[in-house]
Design a protein that fits this description.
Radius of gyration: 15 Å
Order of helices and strands: EEEHHHHH
Structural class: alpha+beta
Strand content: 5-15%
Shape: globular
Strand order of the largest sheet: 1-2-3
Number of strands: 3
Distance between the termini: 41 Å
Number of helices: 5
Length: 135
Amino acid sequence: MRDGVRVCRDWIDVRHEYLQADGRWMAGKCAIDGWCRDCNADGEVPPAEFIAVAFRAGQHDLRAARTIVAAHVHIPFNDATDDRPMVATPFRRLWIAYHLQIIRGQEVDDEAALSAQTIGDMIALVLEPAKEPSS
């Protein structure tokens, strides 16, 4: 990450922030595709549209978490196995953590999200290991 740029995550969103001349931090427009220079430079794109499935009422928590990760890393749901390496930028990892905390209503530690080695490690940040229901 360049000097004067940081990634921030809260209960509202995940965004790049830029240090201003007066010492304040100003939020980038990460939520609008193509409007954030650091998202553009890193090749960040919005999650796949099937992420919406994760937020449907009655969705099993483990299935929802796996859907969120798959949508963010743009792989098919069935390829989001626990032992698959977690290949994502720090910004993407924090964005995944943001969505995971929405489904569980509990905070996800940024450092843990940044250090997750596999998809299973990322999901385990909010869910106890459990058996996913068969479809």
